Amino acid sequence: MVYAYIRVSTQQQSHEGQEYEIRNWCLSHGLTVDRWVTESVSGTQRFEKRVLGRTLKRMKRGDILVCTELSRLGRNMMMVMSILNLCSQKGISLYSIKDNFQLSDNLNAKIIAFAFSLAAEIERNLISQRTREALAAKRQAGVRLGRPPGASAKKERVLKDLSHVRAWRAQGKSLAEIARRYQIHPNTLARYLKEAGETADPGLPPPENQGNEG
Fold first, then answer.
1. Residue 176 has pLDDT above 50, yes or no
2. N or C of the chain: less Cβ packing under 10 Å?
3. How confident is the model at residue 130 (pLDDT cuts 50, 70, 90)?
4. What are phi and psi of 199, to 5 degrees?
5. Average pLDDT score over the chain
């Protein structure tokens, strides 16, 4: 079957110019359009969500798709490339009149398939590179990466800083104030201190009666 695809960006634009070009081209090449596919939609919208996507899904090997120019298929190169690659995989011949472009079972199809796979690989590499650069920038800014430190790591910090904790308590700071520095519950801090042989804060209930927060 021969499908003719026409796309305009707005309802106010006319399909007639593209239809005229396609009819004349098909007449000169001995083709008859079996189905006209028209839609009024921005070319930036994903083709899978457009009438074009549903049409390509329905088309079979040996079918032909005719359009006036490749920009009717999509407004960016990656989208056009993905459409051409899909046509190549399904064995659909595509003719773009103004571009004088033909995609069929020939060298063009092989070039398109190679170019698309190369473009996809380049895009994956660029994403990976951007991710590495973003992580490096965060490290340089002092941002801690990975999962937040667990309870054992927080406990080690408290035990390592016992001299500071003693000094803060001597200055009259409450366990709640000190616990906030370590992002733990005051009862958890009291338990750590008791395990380290430090005097518990008399204003708090005994740590062994509390849950294991933190």
1. yes
2. N
3. confident
4. -70, 130
5. 82
